[in-house]
Amino acid sequence: MCLQIWHIVSASLLVSSSEDDYFRCESVVRNWADASSERGIKEDELTLKDILFFLHVPRTGGRTYFHCFLRKIYTSAQECPRSYDKLRFDPSKPNCRLVVTHDDYSLMSKLPKDMTSVVTILRDPVDRVFSTYEFSVEVAARFLVHPNLTSVAQMSRRIRPKSRAVSTLDIWPWKYLVPWMRGDLFARRDARELGRLRKTEEFSSPYDMEDMVMPLHEFINDPIAHDIIHNGATFQVAGLTNNSYAVESHHVRSCVRKHPELGHFVLEVAKHRLDHMLYVGLTEEHRKSATMFAKLVGAQVLSQSEALNSTFKQETSNQTEPSSSFSDSEADGLNQIEGSTNNQSDSEVPSSTHVEPARENMTVGRLMEIYETCISSLRKTQASRRTLSLKRVAPANFSKKARLSVPATILQQIQYLNSLDVELYKHAQNIFIRQEKHIMQSAEIFIQPEDLQTADCGGSYGCPPWKSLLVIALLAIVVLIMLFLSTGRRTNKVKK
Ligand SMILES: *[C@@H]1O[C@H](CO)[C@@H](O)[C@H](O)[C@H]1NC(C)=O
Ligand SMILES: *[C@@H]1O[C@H](CO)[C@@H](O)[C@H](O)[C@H]1NC(C)=O
Ligand SMILES: *[C@@H]1O[C@H](CO)[C@@H](O)[C@H](O)[C@H]1NC(C)=O
Ligand SMILES: *[C@@H]1O[C@H](CO)[C@@H](O)[C@H](O)[C@H]1NC(C)=O
Ligand SMILES: *[C@@H]1O[C@H](CO)[C@@H](O)[C@H](O)[C@H]1NC(C)=O
Ligand SMILES: *[C@@H]1O[C@H](CO)[C@@H](O)[C@H](O)[C@H]1NC(C)=O
Ligand SMILES: *[C@@H]1O[C@H](CO)[C@@H](O)[C@H](O)[C@H]1NC(C)=O
To answer: Residue 160, Cβ neighbours under 10 Å: how many?
Structure first.
């Protein structure tokens, strides 16, 4: 039903727009695409350059990479200024080497291109939309401790100037999504009270509880979602978000919105960009992605910093354990209201200070151990904050299992609205396989025994099948050679 309506709507849009407009738009988009897919600079794509640009697509798990990998191997002195806290930042800090942000690819125009390696993580588009919805509700629900929106505004005026830390609310796309959802949650406040009294909704889908929260189908059909969520990964990698640095981006965006069949130009640019990245991870393949990140990126950061060792030798001392490192305080002031003594924040934003990494003797295997400890503590914190926050909209509660209650038509609609992202994700899956092969090949040349033990085959990391195969193959070759030698000797003896 919804899909059909959508088809009719987009068809009528097409009819109403003149042919002229279409051809003008086509040339705008085509010109942009040609200019964006610059050729050349092919060599050394797998070598880490001076600057690492982590293009963080929202809700792909990039935050854990930032806290649990990058902050373990980069010092705060190496982090480019205000990466993350303001999207439109000025990378003026000399010699900074790490840029982590929700900014789109057009940020490259501010960075020395030949000296910058880009990495990113992609996620199945349907899951990403679910996660965006859930996170918007989660963050917005925290404000329900306030009696009304006036009081929210007063509080943030009081807290913000004092706090140097960054709030989720400063960050694209949350700076749009959270206030929108927050306003909606306050508007539904009375309905929620009544709904709770009636208790009739206990067993219905949490994604469709009109009395409690904006239902998912309403969320995905809002113009804001069209602006910044749907096909968001493709637009971000292409450098065409509504937060872009590129002057022509607004024009190209509006053309593609008006004429969805021009979307393939954007998709091709995004694919091309992924092809040239140092690393592409997949949220779904979490373990493999993390191991691959440690090997493809982590190892290079470590050897790079060894070369630079003398510069920041002094920074490697005075180390405490990882879990305390995400003490970014949240500027929305909720911790204060709740009388909580913990300053931990669930915002997506790291603050500018952190526990300095001990990179002495750091190996890929050790990095993976640190990552594991860090991520499990990060997840615990996130889960408890989420539970606490969602209590305020109970009985609405989100979980993987509850997602099964969402009707197939809505899932199809999400896929349809994200058809570019669906294609981009498939492309990323192919790149992922290629990266795996590459690691396998370099491992054959250069097997690090300690990696075999600590990173891949030890503890919670299952031994990847290819490594066992490699060992078996090597053993087989050795056995064959020995057989050959001994038969050779025997025949020699017989001849004598
Ligand atoms: C909002 O809450 C504040 C603090 O409780 C109260 O003083 C104010 O009157 C409320 N405003 C409205 C419009 O209800
Ligand atoms: C980006 O999209 C949001 C949500 O629709 C909108 O509020 C905001 O004004 C847009 N920003 C720009 C620069 O167009
Ligand atoms: C590290 O800690 C020691 C004492 O534990 C202190 O003397 C030293 O100044 C600290 N170094 C830095 C860089 O903070
Ligand atoms: C929280 O931060 C405040 C200042 O921002 C500080 O005074 C307080 O000690 C911190 N509490 C904890 C538990 O770290
Ligand atoms: C760092 O450099 C110093 C000499 O400046 C050297 O003694 C030390 O072993 C180096 N450390 C690492 C981890 O390379
Ligand atoms: C690092 O390795 C050196 C020798 O290779 C050793 O003396 C030192 O204790 C190690 N440091 C740590 C923190 O393990
Ligand atoms: C919501 O679900 C989570 C598990 O998915 C559970 O831990 C939590 O207690 C639930 N919250 C409420 C308010 O029922």
So the answer is: 15
Distance between CA atoms of residues 133 and 178, nearest Å: 10
What's the pLDDT tens digit per position in 97-108?
Answer: 899 888 899 989
The Cα 35–Cα 14 span in angstroms is 26
pLDDT tops 60 at residue 23: yes
CA angle 286, 54, 83 (to 5 degrees): 130
Residue 450 clears pLDDT 90, i.e. is over it: no
Best residue for ligand 1 mutational test, from 150, 156, 158, 190 (most atoms within 8 Å of Cβ): 150
166 vs 170: CA distance, rounded Å: 7
- What is the arrangement of strands in the sheet containing 279-282, beginning at the earlier edge strand? 98-101, 51-55, 116-122, 279-282
Digit-coded pLDDT (tens) for 117-135: 999 999 999 999 999 999 9
First to last CA, the chain: 89
Would you state the structure tokens that stand for residue 99, as one six-digit string? 């840029």
Amino acid at 384: S
- In this structure, which residue's CA is closest to atom 4 in ligand 4? 343
Report the pLDDT value the prediction gives residue 187, as an integer from 0 to 100.
95
Q: Is the dihedral of CA 407, 413, 418, 420 positive or negative?
A: positive
| Single-letter code of the amino acid located at 295 | K
Instruction: Round to whole Å and give the CA distance between 441 and 463.
Output: 17
Is the C-alpha dihedral spanning 353, 113, 433, 437 positive or negative? negative
> Has residue 12 got a pLDDT over 60?
no
Q: What is the pLDDT of residues 354-371, one digit of tens each?
A: 567 766 678 888 999 999
Per the model's pLDDT, the better-predicted residue between 332 and 286 turns out to be 286
> Using a 6 Å CB cutoff, which residues line ligand 7?
387, 390-391, 394, 397, 399
Ligand 6 centroid to 317 CA: how many Å? 13
